[in-house]
Amino acid sequence: MTEPAVADSRGDRPAGERVPAIEAVDVSRTYQLDGVSVEALRGVSLTVQPGDYVALVGPSGSGKSTLMHLLGGLDRPTGGRLVIGGRDVNALAPPEMATLRNETIGFVFQAFHLLPRTSAVENVALPLVYRGVSARQRRERAAAMLGRVGLGHRLDHRPNQMSGGEQQRVAIARALVTEPTVLLADEPTGNLDSVTGAALLELLEQLNAESGVALVMVTHDQEVAARAHRRITMRDGVVVADSAASAHPPSAGTADLPAHDRPPSVDHGRPATLVSAPSAEPRSASGSGPGHPSGGSGGAAGATGRLPHDVERPGGTP
Amino acid sequence: MRVAEAWRVALDALRANRLRSALTMLGVIIGVASVVLLVAIGTGTKQKVEQQVEGLGSNLLLVVPGRIEVGNAPVVSPLTLKDVDAVTRVVGDPDRVAVTVASGATARAGARSDFTTVQGVLETTPAVFTRSLARGRYLTGTDVDTSRRVAVLGDSVARALFPDRDPLGQQVALAGVRFRVIGVFAPLGQSLGVDRDDEVHVPVTAAQRLWGTQRVDGIAVKAPDRERIDELGERIVAELNRRHPDTEFSAVTQQQILGVLGDILGVLTGVLAAIAGISLLVGGVGVSNIMLVSVRERTREIGLRKAVGARPRDIGVQFLLEAVLLTTIGGLTGMALGVGTALLVDALSPIPAAITWWSLALAFGVSAVVGIVFGVVPAQRAGRLDPVVALRTE
């Protein structure tokens, strides 16, 4: 296998031409458990732009994990359209999905998921193995990446010789060694103490700012969530709130983003409802309309299924 | 690159579970070792029998009454020395014709006695069959013509009757009649469990007189060349059929005897190998079982590898390699064990064992195939694991 072409959704284009890293349109996911259908996701629409910093919050069972798996290409939707790195996952066979994950997505898990009996540098190099990179280059790139996460001095240490924080740094290096478009972190600080967790979070934010990798993070921690530039809240399989924090500098005006500034209701012909309009129907579509004051890349993301009372920061203005 | 990684991972997995890997291999080791050992014994036996049949002499044609087939009762021979003369005329060279009339008899010398086979023969016997003497001389034409009571002893008879003195010139009583020992054969050893040195040769005329008979049991002819041996056999049989229209005669060559013996021993070897093969199969089931355990144990690892871009095939190849490594390492160990045991058996026991390259190649090939066959199902299962489910496994 040869070195794949860099995903065409990289954020190195002019802002106005940016292609979303991930685009989900009315995505649903239904599981069959003992013959009973369980709707884990019920029509989620959202867009992740290159460089985004998103916190995905919601109670247990709200569908966060399912959404994460879908956004990461580990799973495929049972309904709707999901485009990762410009490729519609419903059109991809499992091997192509694997390649897509390898090229586009980096994962960081709560439980680290490092290979035991395997050195840090080899753990980090693992994704490059499946990309067909030569052993020497793998080691070079993995070592460089470990340097960036502050573990340049621990290349040949094994996971059981490292602290939790160090292990998670190795995992972050592994996620980023392929230079993905999106870094998906599932409770990355969940197994760490608060000091270590805070340092790790800073590292993630720094990498997000430096490399332009979109950071999508599932978290229970309100403080962590508050630091994200955008916050997506889920409940009962739908997105109930999607807001961009004001702290995030607008990378482009909404007017420059014709592909994303339309409310999702236009996209799938649903009747548009104002954010404030009360509705007992959880699926009622809504979103940030044209000229919405939120701005920023976060404003480019449309979310359907928003429940008015769950919108924590309407308009994204504090 | 991916295959190199698969090798590395497979080896690492085997190393991480040394005891389990060794126990799993044990099944394959025992299977391969028994195949190699049993095939070696079968082959060794076959080779030894062939050597002995060929050691009888080259281009030998055995003429006997009746039909040589398994299960046929021996026929009482109607042949006499007149028939031998007729056969000699067909052959055209008296030195190439040997006869035998044999019977069991007690040989006695002083207080010692030994039950042995007494063969009445012509002086041509050492030339037709390859026999050599350790001491003394063999029978002469005069001995035969004059029915002289002289005897040549087989090695074990000589040792039984004369353990502490030179048998030459001594008297032995055969069936109560005294013969003078003129020679002792060089030892031949055993053949298929029969002591070939347990015999006494006397002139055929003397033997016939001893038993009061005119008959000759069989005629052996040393053909001048291999090409015309069958044709010569047919001419001899035709001549004997003309003289004895009521009796069937057969002329068999060493090649025919070897063919029959080879077939029997080949079937025997095959049966032994097949039985050993079953244990190899059982070993394969063990490999399959352990591979399923290994897949289950490493579900999280599989999930992670998939998450970072391993395709189902990459995972499948990794586990298949692990299974094949288990069986081939086991196979090589089993081969070494089998060869070692076979060499020991050959050296320390009367059972002959011969290692053949094809049995080693076969054993190794089969163990690799066993790995593939029994590794496919676990490998497929690993390859198809849902990464979401795999990652969630604790």
Order of helices and strands of chain B: HHEHEEHEHEHEEEEEHEHEHHHHH
Most extensive chain contact? A-B, 29 and 24 residues
Oligomer: heterodimer
Number of strand elements of chain B: 12
Q: What would the CATH topology of chain A be?
A: Rossmann fold
Low-confidence segments of chain A: 1-16, 245-318
The count of helical stretches of chain B stands at: 13
CATH architecture label name of chain A: 3-Layer(aba) Sandwich
How many β strands of chain A by DSSP?
A: 10
Distance between the termini of chain A: 49 Å
Number of contiguous helices of chain A: 8
GO molecular function, one term (chain B): ATP binding
Subcellular location (chain B): Cell membrane
Keywords (chain B): ATP-binding, Cell membrane, Membrane, Nucleotide-binding, Transmembrane, Transmembrane helix
Protein name (chain B): Macrolide export ATP-binding/permease protein Ma cB 1/2
Give the secondary structure arrangement, pairings included.
The complex is a heterodimer of chains A (318) and B (394).
Chain A (H helix, E strand, L loop, with lengths): L21 E12 L2 E13 L4 E5 L6 H8 L7 E6 L2 E2 L5 H11 E4 L11 H10 L5 H14 L15 H13 L5 E5 L7 H18 L2 E5 L3 H6 L2 E6 L2 E7 L19 H4 L51
Parallel strand pairs in A: 3-8, 3-9, 6-7, 7-8
Antiparallel strand pairs in A: 1-2, 1-4, 4-5, 9-10
Helix pairs in contact in A: 3-4, 3-5, 4-5, 5-6
Chain B lengths: L1 H15 L1 H38 L4 E6 L15 H11 L5 E13 L2 E10 L3 H4 L4 E4 L4 H5 L4 E4 L1 H7 L9 E4 L2 E9 L4 E2 L2 E2 L3 E5 H8 L6 E5 L6 H15 L5 E5 H44 L1 H9 L4 H37 L8 H28 L2 H6 L2
Parallel strand pairs in B: 3-10, 5-7
Antiparallel strand pairs in B: 1-11, 1-12, 2-3, 2-6, 2-11, 4-7, 5-10, 6-7, 8-9
Helix pairs in contact in B: 1-11, 2-9, 2-11, 2-12, 3-8, 9-11, 9-12, 11-12
Structure description:
The complex is a heterodimer of chains A (318) and B (394). Chain A is of the alpha/beta class and 318 residues long. Chain A has one domain: Rossmann fold. Chain A has helices spanning 64-71, 94-104, 120-129, 135-148, 164-176, 194-211, 222-227, 264-267, and strands spanning 22-33, 36-48, 53-57, 79-84, 87-88, 105-108, 182-186, 214-218, 230-235, 238-244. Chain A has a 6-stranded mixed beta sheet with strand order 6-7-8-3-9-10, sandwiched between helices. In chain A, strands 2-1-4-5 form a 4-stranded antiparallel beta sheet, with helices on one face. In chain A, helix 3 packs parallel to helix 5. Chain A starts with 21 loop residues before the first strand and ends in a 51-residue tail after the last helix. Residues 1-16 and 245-318 of chain A have low confidence and may be disordered. Chain B is of the alpha+beta class. Chain B has 2 domains: 2-52 and 260-392, no CATH class; 94-221, no CATH class. Helix content of chain B is 58%, strand content 18%. Chain B has helices spanning 2-16, 18-55, 81-91, 125-128, 141-145, 155-161, 204-211, 229-243, 254-297, 299-307, 312-348, 357-384, 387-392, and strands spanning 60-65, 97-109, 112-121, 133-136, 150-153, 171-174, 177-185, 190-191, 194-195, 199-203, 218-222, 249-253. In chain B, the strands form 2 sheets. A 6-stranded mixed beta barrel of chain B has the order 2-3-10-5-7-6. In chain B, strands 8-9 form a two-stranded antiparallel ribbon. Chain B: It is a multi-pass membrane protein. Chain B: GO terms for molecular function: ATP binding; transmembrane transporter activity. Chain B: Belongs to the ABC-4 integral membrane protein family. Chain B: It holds the Pfam family MacB_PCD. Chain B: Its main location: membrane.
